[in-house]
Design goal:
homotrimer; 18% helix; 12-stranded mixed β-sheet; Udp-n-acetylmuramoylalanyl-d-glutamate--2,6- Diaminopimelate Ligase, Chain: A, domain 1; 28% strand; 349 residues; alpha/beta
């Protein structure tokens, strides 16, 4: 694509030779002739001076680069846009691969692309333009909305409902049985059937090997626009708000309610039956045993205010020293009191 | 089902119209006409007064509800029982789907229900009434006991032995190679073959995408009645006692021995070659580097007694303040000594 | 195999009857007639005196055992070697199972063993002697080097490149989309396409249900000889050095660079865009938010020097007591000052 056309499609101001042919998007260090690159993180600004790229996307006020420049008000957004323009089509071949096992009463939308060895069980409904990669299973009565992409080896268990444009990475499980048991006096656990359903709203992305359980009654609901990374666990009956981000290996226990625009960083754990308010954030590995108010930024286990946690953590490593200082104070005070009482009985030192 | 019949089958005392037709189990907030709901957690008692359910299961001493009531000595157990009564059959169609690849010498029990594209390798034995969902692989020589349910995309690697009534959720891996290496002087790691086996005893449930490794010699053993949640890691040579509960994302390192009726909450980590006594419990995210005695309740990393941990955690956030108080004490004591020595040389202040 | 032949093949010194027939490798407690066992961990030395094994591998200076002995300069290495000698062949049958779906332009090497229902997409290249177990998917244009073993239900997404002798356990995902989004002013997230690739170098092993993401540009690279356990998450753009070990449930966030011969124990988390130097090690559950120098041993979150952390952790549980000691000091000092000022105004006690 000509750089001038690219500038126009991205809404960027062109500063350089618009007749250049751009064939690929690449990192600033590895880009070469024909590549467009970008600078979004100022941390990498120095690399720009050495780039071999033909063109670069950068902010209006960034230092000039030794190549053609596309000046953008939102360089990271323009980078995403250029990647969309150059993305290759990775959908399976149009139609349904003959090796699939599709229940006779399953309903398939228009222009689907269903790869080899996919299983679609009775009563399932697949929307228009849905792409399903090999070995994925869509369970009985499940609904997959228009324009969804299910990568390889995904389980969409019976009764699950996916909205439009949901993307599910390989190996994720939607609708596995919730972890619910009743325990008798002898400590023996009896399974509570978990046959209610999971609802995934529009524009959600679910990471590889993530698991989302269905509850016994009611629903597990992942609201619109949410992004879930790999190996995340969402237990039965959880509700997650719109545009929330759950990073890799986060775990959310049963029946908890997570607000909108929440960000939980990697390996955060959330206990059951609690509420996390809108726009709350937790740093990596935080353990959340209690409700978190809207807008809070929390860290540690049990989770406390992030600034408080940072300050306390800085003192933590000095604990042995603090302990010694306390012992020293006690010794000096004891000496003082001894001397003082000595002073009272005998004024010589 | 008539409410009177339901009362009888659940062993509950009926208080209300026994002729009501009950068609579904639902949550107290979402239940409507024809639904039965329940109250087990007193936290939700106030919702009961507004329920639209036709009937409710509740304790003998719970406040009356505005609908028919089934009074139960164990309302949570009765709730589980009613869910069993209303559970829909989710087994694959009876028999073996023609798309399966079954080794000629594999042995299948009576009344199995084996869904599409299942692979059963040479010498494997499948018990009576076993249900196997699509894309599951049962490896060479593996044994799957009577009434097991293997959900979709499960790996039962060669040589694994499952008892009766074992339930395995989607994507779980039983019998992957243990993580065993020998490292030479140059820091190069050589794989130690891990071809011994995993034993899963009767009535165990294994969560979605959980992994259980097999060892080089000996066995990994999961004893009777154990419940394992999603994304749990059990390393090679581990032994887990009866009726133990491992919540989501727990990890247990090699050769550790976990007792009976133990409960490890979400994201707990257990180091290798240690012992956890019967009835011990660990709260979420606990790290266990040493043996834990029977009956202990532990928290934190390294794990300590839970009450001790709660108290220490409460002080943790005050560390910056404590540090200031120590500095203040030092200053005051120094001032005192200075003054005091001043006093000795010059008694004026 | 005769014990004398075994001794020769392992390079061990035989002390006992070389004509014994050895048929199996077993643990010291469970070994019987015909078995060879080993002692590598001195912790288990006392068990040796009761072993029923026919032969044992042990160090030159270990106490004699009540059976034939193979004395080894490296008993753990000899144990690994004997397991290799006795390993059974677990590869699928030679050739390509007729149920596979192989793209016409995919290239297969010599002597491959490809089990049932494997999918190989257009343009993929499979090396010589590669073994692929059931339900594994090799994506478009992916390269799998000579002598690789892909266990069941593995995803090798399009464009991934695996070197020689790579082993991938069941359910692992190589090349899932990195977790990259750009967020607009309203907090709505837009996916950044992640279509660049993952490179796995020679002799890497990847655990069950582990996920390795591909980036938008550049590469995610796992260098030669690295061993990755189960349920590990490696984000997009990460680079991991040679012979590094990542234990189970470790998570590494985007663009971080991990050196060679690093060891991260179970459940460790590494933040994005940081560097971990060669030979660094982190104990279990460590959280690493900043760069770690080469050779460091770190613990805790935020990660600090392990010895410092051990000492601080020992004091942590005493925090309530320290708090009381500070309060006591304050009280005593206040009493002292009161008395002192009293002294000044009135010298009676």
């Amino acid at each position: 694509m000509k750089l001038s056309e690219l500038a126009e499609r991205l809404g960027c101001r062109l500063d350089g030779d618009g007749s250049l042919d751009i064939v690929r998007v690449a990192g600033v260090d590895t880009a070469g002739a024909g590549d467009i690159t970008f600078l979004a993180n100022p941390k990498y600004a120095s690399s720009v001076q050495h780039t071999k790229a033909s063109a670069i996307i950068l902010a209006e006020d960034a230092e000039a680069a030794p190549c053609a420049m596309l000046r953008s008000p939102h360089p990271y957004r323009s980078f995403a846009d250029v990647l969309v323009l150059f993305a290759r089509d990775e959908r399976p071949a149009p139609g349904v691969h003959p090796s699939c096992v599709i229940a006779p009463d399953a309903v398939l939308g228009k222009d689907v692309a269903i790869g080899p060895l996919v299983v679609i069980e009775p009563g399932a409904r697949i929307g228009d333009r849905v792409a399903i990669h090999p070995h994925t299973v869509v369970g009985a009565g499940a609904v997959v909305g228009d324009d969804c992409v299910l990568h390889a080896r995904v389980s969409v268990r019976g009764g699950s409902r996916l909205g439009a444009r949901v993307i599910v990475q390989d190996g994720a499980v939607i609708g596995s049985d919730g972890f619910g048991f009743v325990t008798d006096g002898a400590g023996v656990h009896y399974k509570i059937p978990q046959q209610s359903h999971v609802v995934i709203e529009d524009d959600v992305e679910i990471g590889a090997n993530t698991t989302i359980d269905r509850p016994a009654v009611g629903e597990t609901r992942i609201r619109r626009g949410k992004k879930i990374d790999n190996l995340v666990m969402i237990a039965h009956g959880v509700s997650v708000g719109e545009h929330t981000i759950l990073a890799a290996q986060v775990g959310v226990a049963g029946s908890s309610r997570i607000g909108s625009h929440v960000v939980l960083a990697g390996q955060v754990g959330v206990a059951g039956h609690i509420e996390i308010g809108d726009n709350a954030r937790a740093t990596a590995q935080t353990g959340i045993p209690n409700d978190i108010p809207a807008g809070a930024l929390v860290s540690g286990y049990p989770a406390i205010d992030n600034r408080e946690w940072l300050k306390a953590s800085a003192v933590f490593r000095k604990l042995p020293k603090l302990q010694r200082r306390i012992a020293e104070l006690e010794k000096r005070l004891a000496a003082l009191k001894t001397k003082e009482s000595t002073d009272f009985t005998d004024s010589t030192d």
